[in-house]
Design brief:
Elements lengths: L5 E5 L4 H11 L6 E5 L5 E5 L7 E5 L6 H17 L4 E6 L18 H12 L3 E5 L14 E4 L2 H10 L7 E5 L5 H11 L2 E9 L5 E7 L6 E9 L3 H12 L4 E9 L3 H7 L6 E5 L11 E4 L2 H12 L14
Parallel strand pairs: 1-4, 4-5, 5-6, 6-7, 8-9, 8-11, 11-12, 12-13, 13-14
Antiparallel strand pairs: 2-3, 9-10
Helix pairs in contact: 1-8
Length: 317
């Protein structure tokens, strides 16, 4: 019996990343028509035979979130109805992840709803990166491979010479302490935290800092930034406490117009992010690192039924 062939398809959310992944692992990007009708309805047609094949569908659910989510669901359904052997949804950025609990009366748990939709569409496996909260993996009733962007950030930090005794890794809020602690351990640096108070959905008032940043180079770490309010306010607090420089490492930069305006202020020396979603630097100090190699290697290992644990390791650790 012939082993299933590896097939990779992409929606319109982040086709350049899909093309980069395919180039990195030497697999051609599959032919598919992904467009929409004049009334906005999505239309998908897979233009090659995938019967019995190992199919990977690459789609970040970034802006416009609902449209890209529907593209993903329809592509999965098309692959299922075309008799694919296995369908892995590759979701570098998982939208709706911040709605992962009932924190007030009569609100949904949308992260779970989206997980249900993806499974119902026909996905048999998920490959994603830096979920907003670890428990989202449990929202799926299918296997989830959860990667981290930390190896990519680590290489960049070493390249620019930040990884030394003068570095302090800081979480811009209480919720990110576990992530910041992991980065601090990885980089052998001190750890700090900013305690913040949110005043609205778009504004944050940072209140105090825990840890010593006086005369230090600070690396703020977070998984998502949209308005950059948390990062900018944390950076202001860092500088007020004597930080020499402030950089931010954020896995998913969903930069809104408000975020670009705030970044122009210069409080952050460099925003380091990844290409899990398309990012336009717009002449600002924004460095976009590629996760194509990481995702590509994960795809190959999943296809060959190998462990992906080795992808969590960083050179020298």
């Amino acid at each position: 019996m012939t082993a299933p062939r590896l097939k990779i398809f992409s929606g319109n959310a982040n086709r350049p990343l899909a093309e980069e992944i395919c180039k990195a692992i030497g697999v051609p990007l599959g032919e598919a028509t992904v467009t929409k009708f004049p009334d906005g309805e999505s239309f998908v047609k897979i233009n090659e035979n995938i019967r019995g094949q190992d199919v990977f569908i690459m789609q970040s659910t970034c802006t416009p979130t609902n449209h890209h989510l529907m593209e993903l669901l329809i592509m999965i359904d098309a692959a299922r109805r075309a008799s694919a052997n296995r369908i892995t949804a590759v979701i570098p950025f998982y939208g709706y992840a911040r709605q992962d609990r009932k924190d007030q009366p009569r609100v949904p748990i949308t992260a779970k709803l989206v997980a249900n939709l993806i499974v119902a569409a026909g996905a048999t496996r998920i490959l994603t990166m830096d979920l907003h909260s670890q428990q989202i993996q449990g929202f799926f009733d299918i296997p989830v491979d959860h990667l981290f962007a930390s190896p990519v950030f680590f290489e960049h930090v070493e390249k620019i010479g930040m990884r030394d005794k003068n570095l302090v890794v800081v979480s811009p809020d209480v919720g990110g302490m576990k992530m910041a602690a992991a980065y601090a351990t990885l980089m052998g640096s001190a750890l700090g935290m900013v305690w913040k108070k949110r005043t609205s959905a778009t504004t944050v008032e940072s209140v105090n800092v825990v840890g010593d940043v006086d005369g230090k180079d600070v690396l703020l770490v977070d998984d998502i930034t949209e308005t950059a309010g948390t990062l900018i306010n944390a950076a202001k607090v860092m500088r007020a406490h004597g930080a020499l420089s402030v950089r931010a490492a954020v896995s998913h930069a969903l930069l809104s117009p408000i975020a670009y305006d705030r970044l122009k202020g210069g409080e952050i020396d460099e925003l380091i992010t990844t290409n899990t979603i398309p990012v336009d630097p717009r002449g600002l100090p924004i460095t976009v690192l590629s996760v194509a190699g990481l995702l590509g290697e994960a795809i190959l290992r999943i296809h060959n039924n190998e462990s992906v644990t080795g992808l969590f390791k960083v050179k020298g650790f």
